[in-house]
Amino acid sequence: MDTKWLDDFIALADTGNFTRAAMLRNASQAAFSRRIRALEMAVNATLVDRSTYPTRLTPAGDAFRARAAELLGQLRETIQDISTGASGGALRIALPYALATAFAGRWLGGWAPEKLRYMLLPGSMHDMFTALVSGRSDLLITFYSPSHPIQIDEQRYERLTVGLDKVRPYARRDFKAAEFFPGTAKRPCPLLTYPPTAYFGRLVETIVERAPAPLRAERIVECEMSDVLRDLALAGLGVAWLPSCTIDPIMHEALTPVDDGSWSLDIQVAAFRDREAANPALRRLWERLTARPEMMLWQ
Fold first, then answer.
1. For 230-258, how does the pLDDT look when each residue is reduced to its tens digit (9 = 90+)?
2. Can you give the CATH number for the domain in which 121 is found?
3. What residues make up the domain containing 215?
4. Rounded distance, CA 142 to CA 163, Å?
5. What are the tens digits of pLDDT across the range 137-182?
6. Most exposed among 12, 116, 186, 232, judged by the fewest C-beta atoms under 10 Å?
7. Residues with Cβ within 8 Å of residue 297, at least 6 apart in sequence
8. How many CB atoms lie within 10 A of CB 291?
9. 73 to each of 36, 39, 138, 185, how far by Cα in Å?
10. 191 with 239: CB under 8 angstroms?
11. Does residue 89 come out as left (phi exceeding 0), alpha (psi in the -120 to 50 range) or beta?
C-alpha cells in the first residue's frame, strides 16, 4: 500500500468532493479516483459511497478514516524525529522554486539576531505541503491568494502574511504586445503558462475570468515553474504570467508587463507552521515576524 493513498483518502473525507480533493492533492481527477480505488482494493472494503453528493464515507470508511489519521500521525512524528536529527538543528524551510533564490538573498540575514542554520527545501506546491504536514520541514513559505485558499487544517497550521506580490503578464520588451495581447481568433497570443491543476494555473484562470476582454491564446509551453516560463519569455517565445519577485532589476530591462494592470492579480507571500512544532528556532523566528511587521519580505 502506498502511504500517499492514505493522504488522498483523508483529503476526500475532509472535502466530500473528488474534484476538490484531487486539486488539493495536485492530481487529475482520473488519477485521484484510481488511487482511491487502489486503496479500497488494498483494504478489501468499499470506503466511499459514490451514490451520494457530497461524497460520503461508508461505515467501513468512517472506521478506516480514524485509523488512517492515526497511522499518518505516527508516521509523521517518526519522520519528524528522524529528519530533525538529520538536519543537525537547522531550520528547515520549504518554499517554491520561484522564491528560493530571492529568499536566500533578501531575507535570511535579517530574520534573527542570532545566527541560525537553514536547510532550504525547494519544490512544487504539493511537495512543499507534503513536507510540512509530514514533519520534514519546519516552515513553509509560499504564494497565497484569498481567491484560492489552500485547503489545510487551520486549527493545527498557522498562517502569517510575510509579503505582498503581484502576478502580471510579461513579455520581452521587443515583443509586439499591442499586436498579440490579448490576441484574436486569427492572431492568437503565444502563451507560456502553467498546467491547469497547478496553483498558479488556477490563479491565471481567475485573472482571465475577470479580465476586461477575452483572451485568445495558443499554449506554446506548459510548465509549473515560474522561473522556466520567465526564461522562455526572455527568449521571446511569448507571454507569461509571473510573480514580480521572479524578475530582478536586470531583467526589468528586458521584460515588461504587457497589460495596464487589468490582467493582474495581487497575491501574498505566506508562511505556514505547525502549531505543535517543537523547534525553538522556529518559535523565535515566528515571534519576531509576528511582532515586527517591518520584517515583511517586501511590500
1. 999 999 999 999 999 888 777 878 899 99
2. 3.40.190.10
3. 165-266
4. 10
5. 899 999 999 988 887 778 889 999 988 899 999 999 888 776 789 9
6. 186
7. 106, 107, 162, 163, 269
8. 8
9. 20, 18, 16, 52
10. yes
11. left
